[in-house]
Amino acid sequence: MTTTTTENISFSVADAVKDGLSKKEKTLPSWLFYDAEGDRLFQKIMNMPEYYLTNCEYDIFQKYKNDILNLITKETNKFSLIEFGAGDGLKTEILLKHFVENDTNFSYKPVDISENVIQLLQNRMQKSIPDLDITPINKEYFSALDEFNEARTNPCIVLFMGGNIGNFEMEDAQSFVNKIAAKLRTGDRFILGFDLKKDPQMILDAYNDAGGITRQFNMNLLKRMNNELNADFDSSAFKHFPTYDPQTGTTKSFLISQKKQEVNLNAIDTIISFDKWEPIHVEISQKFDSEMINEMATKAGLSVEKYFYDDQEYFTDVVMRK
Ligand code: AVI
Q: Beta strands 279-286 and 105-111: pairing type?
C-alpha cells in the first residue's frame, strides 16, 4: 500500500482516506493529489494561462537573481542552498545558473521525499549546469535540516517556493515556519514564496480554469481511491467547486456530491455515505498580504529582510533572516 511522509508522520493512503472521510466535515489531505497522474496534471496546471503563480515567480527570479545573490554574498562567501520540494527545478535553475556563472562558492541541496523527483531533478541540473555542486537529500524536510546541521561548516539559505506554504492551514503554516526557524542559526536565511491577495476573480480562475485541468486534478483523487483502495467513486456524481474569501485570503477547493449516495472502499472494508450536496474539502491555497507575512516571520523569530515582487505584485518571494 502507498505510504507518503509529510513532516515527520507517515500516513498510508488507506489511513488518510479513512480518517478524512469519517469526519463530520469530510476532508482529504492535499498530498493525496500527487500520484503519477496528479504530478502530470500539476505540470499542466503550472503551464495554464490562468495559473499566474508560475510566471510570476519565474519573473521574480529572472529580474532579481543578482540582487538575491548580492544579498546573500554580502555576508558570506560560502553557503549551502537547501531547497524543499524543488519539483521540476525550472525556476530554481535560473538562480543556480546565475550563481554558478558568477563563480559563487555554494552547494545546492534539494530535499524531497520522492526518490523519483530527486533523481529527475539531479539529472536535469547535471545536464543544464554541469559545474553545479549538487547533493540531493531524499528525506523529509526537518530530518534533512537536522542532518545538514550535524555536519555543517557554513551558513544556509532554505528555499521554499511556489506558494507551497499556502497549502497549509494558517496555524500549521506558522508551526512549520517556527520549526524551520528553530533549526536555523544566526545569519541563516529562509526564502519563502507567497501568493498574494488580488482580484478575487483572477484567483478563482486560477483554480477553475476554462480547460478543466484543475477539475481533472481534483477528480483524480477519486480515481486514486478507486485504483488504490478498490473504491467505486463515480466521478460524474461529484462536482469540482473552488471558493475564495477575499477577507481571509483563503481559497478552498471542494468535491461536492451531487446526489445522496454510498461509496464502497472495498480494500478497507468501509462504506462512506454522502448526502446530496455534501462537500469533501480537498485543498486550501492561502493568499497573503504583507501584514500576514510580517506577523508569520516575527512569531517565528525571523526578521523580514527583503520582499521581491513581480511587476504586477501578484506574488512575492520574501527573504527572512535569523
Ligand atoms: C502546489 N500548490 C502551491 C498549488 C496551489 O496553487 O495551491 C497546488 C494547486 N492546486 C490546484 N492548482 C494548483
A: unpaired
C-beta of 285 in contact with ligand 1 (< 6 A): yes
Task: Could you list the beta-strand ranges (E) of 47-130.
Answer: 78-84, 105-111
DSSP state at residue 197: P
208 close to 242: Cβ distance less than 8 angstroms:
yes
Report yes or no: 286 and 306 within 8 Å, Cβ to Cβ.
no
* CB-based burial label for 49 (10 Å; 0-12, 13-18, 19+): exposed
Supply the ipTM of this predicted assembly.
Answer: 0.99
pLDDT tens digits, residue range 71-115? 999 988 899 999 998 878 889 999 999 999 999 999 999 998 888
Q: Is 251 in the pocket of ligand 1 (CB under 6 A)?
A: no
Distance 282 CA to ligand 1 centre (A): 11
Taking the model in full, what pTM does it have? Answer: 0.94
From the list 10, 52, 53, the residue with the least C-alpha distance to 29 is: 10
The verdict on the CB of residue 89 being under 6 Å from ligand 1 is no
